[in-house]
Amino acid sequence: DFEFIRTLARGQFGIVDIVRNKHNKGVYAMKTLSKHALLTQREQAAFLEERDVLVLGKHSPWIPDLYAAFQDKESLYLVMEFVAGGDLFSMLDRCDNAVVDEDAARFYAAELVLAIEDLHKLGYVHRDCKPQNTLLDERGHVKLADFGSCARIDATGAHEAKMSVPVGTCDYIAPESLQAREHGGGAVASGACDWWALGTVLYEMLYGDPPFYSDSVPETYAKIMACETNLAFDESAQVSDAARDLMRRLLCRPETRLGNAGAQEIKSHAFFASIDWDNIRQQDAPFVPHISAPDDTSNFSVGDEDDQ
């Protein structure tokens, strides 16, 4: 029923291709997941959770639409809305020094807050929020993507099962997720790890690199585990006190992290004082992508994903 157009991304568990429906000529993003890879890394891969989030989130403006889910002997398939405006990573890649001004960073961070809040209300934690998973639609507004690391959370906001391996991407993973490896399954995922990721994405938009970036994965992990002493701000950058305060209150231990009492804690922070939360999606975005055709992928920096 679908014809291949081009590959958009390759990840640890499969690929995302742009395809065209032979019947209605619609263009979609098809995610193909290897059953073998999913079965051998069950704690890190969450196909059923990803499908369920897309189904449950069908009325959320922050989650891409799901059109079909099916399987064959070797693979599982998800056919989703193709969000052609690119992603936050690609947009930053085209900016001078890979940064945006504070007003633009505030806009994208605010929309990401609303997207994460919607996901948590559905009963899931994302566990892999990052610029590559923050899509931009044709008007430049955010849609959260790639729910393949999602986990169910209970009424208290905690994951129903403990983790024995860290889940997420190196530069954006929260310290409590890394504790899974240290304590042999003693770490519990919660919505707090998504608020940590929000802090890393905000920092990257304002400073050009994630806050604990280094040349090696072990060094990055060590910096994250000692986040209180390793979080630093370049004083030469034009970043407000309110922005730095928000990042300090997100990039900290989960016990004291902003958002523990819900998204309203973050939405009430001084950094977001100018945000009209009820109408932000009707406002003009800082960047409006140019889309030349329904299958235009030029807004994406295409490459392999490194799902550390």
H and E order:
EEEHHEEHHEEEEEHEHHHHHE
| Domain unit count | 2
Major sheet: order of its strands? Answer: 4-5-3-2-1-12
Task: Tell me the major beta sheet.
Answer: 6 strands, mixed
**First and last CA, distance:** 34 Å
The CATH superfamily of the largest domain appears as Transferase(Phosphotransferase) domain 1
- Detail the poorly predicted runs: 304-308
Rg from Cα:
19 Å
Q: What is the average of the pLDDT values? A: 90
Which CATH C-level class of the largest domain is it?
Answer: Mainly Alpha
**Shape call:** globular
Please tally the β strands and state the result. 12
Total helices: the number is 10
Fraction in beta strands: 15-25%
DSSP helix fraction: 25-40%
Q: What fold name stands as the CATH topology of the largest domain?
A: Transferase(Phosphotransferase), domain 1
Quaternary organisation of the protein chains = single chain
CATH architecture descriptor text of the largest domain: Orthogonal Bundle
Structural class: alpha+beta
Q: Could you please describe the fold and organization of this structure?
A:
By secondary structure, this protein is an alpha+beta fold. The chain has helices at residues 35-40, 47-56, 88-93, 102-121, 175-182, 192-207, 217-225, 227-230, 241-250, 263-267; strands at residues 2-10, 14-21, 27-34, 66-71, 75-81, 124-125, 134-136, 142-144, 151-152, 158-163, 187-190, 303-304. Strands 4-5-3-2-1-12 form a 6-stranded mixed β-sheet. Strands 6-9 form a two-stranded antiparallel ribbon. It has a two-stranded antiparallel sheet with strand order 7-8. Helix 4 packs antiparallel against helix 6 and helix 6 (192-207) packs antiparallel against helix 9 (241-250). It is globular.
